[in-house]
Specification:
The chain has 68 residues and is an all-alpha fold. The chain has a domain of 36 residues. The protein is built from 6 helices and no strands. The longest helix has 20 residues.
């Protein structure tokens, strides 16, 4: 017998859930984070340094997200 091809997202629904979660996290980092993510590690200093914002600053503008 020949097996038919089924995409991983159909055969394993948790794969799709994981990919959607990863995409949502990536969207948050790219579009919305203003120091909150690293504040879990760096505390209040993360808001002053704003490292993630500076790292993805140009990508935000290219994607059409205003940031200042």
């Amino acid at each position: 017998m020949h097996e038919t091809y089924t995409p991983a997202a159909v055969s394993r629904p948790w794969t799709l859930v994981g990919l959607l979660g990863l995409a949502a996290f990536g969207f948050y980092v790219l579009a919305l984070d203003q120091g909150w993510l690293l504040s879990l590690v760096q505390g209040d200093r993360a808001f002053d340094l704003n490292f993630i914002h500076e790292a993805v600053h140009d990508a935000r503008h290219v994607a059409g997200f205003p940031c200042h």
